[in-house]
């Protein structure tokens, strides 16, 4: 992971660090093909881009207006989202909504989160808070089973402490070295993980 360069000119209240990793699409598809339960499901489902005015289905905040991890969950039924996947402003909202939906009998077919190994991210410093940019285009998402998330790092999201996902192990290691936190497979996130954030 690229370290922030304090000499880089930035907007008044933020620092930005562009970075790009080209994802090996075949490898990602291969990992996705072994997806099973807990929202990893059907391989024919692809992520969608999130509209600029789309509200988070969990908390109601406009997804594109806030920093950090973005998510979407595709369900076996289309309700109550009206024929689109459920869409979220944070990983916390993504998992909370999915867990609640599962408890009410709905079946998640695929869960997607921002893949910070695959986007040009910006790092923002506001006061003592460190945040990553959000990305709402379909290409920014990766299927949950292909991701490792970092919990309890210094980086926060739209809802405060959040999970930061990566598909590349080297990016996970660099992120933890710079921002702290604990890495875990995204498929192992449960309610206790969210409560410990």
TrEMBL record:
It comes from the Archaea. Gene3D superfamilies: 3.30.70.2050. This is NosL.
